[in-house]
Amino acid sequence: MFVEKLRAAQQKNQSFLCVGLDPDPELMPHPDVASFLHEIVEATKDLVCAYKPNLAFFEALGVGGMQTLLESIRGVPSHIPIIADAKRGDIGNTARFYARALF
């Protein structure tokens, strides 16, 4: 089912682009993470074949971050698949956010 959904999104949008959703508040133009991610999805939904939220960045924001993750997922058009980036042995920047979430 996932592969079919991915292929359909690739065909519909003529794209192989997957957009990562990695909200780092220190690098964002405004502090409202949910609004920022909504703007990204709205601006790219006809250009991508998938979205990939990096769970470390959401987990580092605590319970509110997990709520933001759910809101962000709900904002993705239903024909576009979502890939959870949840690998724990990741690069330094992502590992830093996992550390924030856990400690």
Distance between the termini: 37 Å
| CATH-assigned homologous superfamily | Aldolase class I
Strand arrangement within the widest β-sheet reads 1-2
How much helical structure, as a percent, in the residues?
40-55%
The run of helices and strands is: HEHEHHH
Q: CATH first level: which class?
A: Alpha Beta
Instruction: Tell me the CATH topology.
Output: TIM Barrel
What CATH architecture do you see?
A: Alpha-Beta Barrel
Q: Give the number of domains.
A: 1
Biggest beta-sheet profile: 2 strands, parallel
Number of helices: 5
Low-confidence stretches: none
Class from secondary-structure proportions: mainly alpha
Number of strands: 2
Describe the protein.
The structure is a single chain. The chain has helices at about 1-15, 35-45, 55-60, 60-75, 90-100, and strands at about 20, 50-55. It has about 100 residues and is mainly α. It has one domain: Aldolase class I (TIM Barrel, Alpha-Beta Barrel). Strands 1-2 form a two-stranded parallel ribbon. α2 links the parallel β1 and β2. α2 packs parallel to α4 (about 60-75).
Can you lay out the helices and strands and say which pair or pack?
Elements: H1 2-13, E1 18-21, H2 33-44, E2 50-53, H3 55-59, H4 62-74, H5 92-102
Parallel strand pairs: 1-2
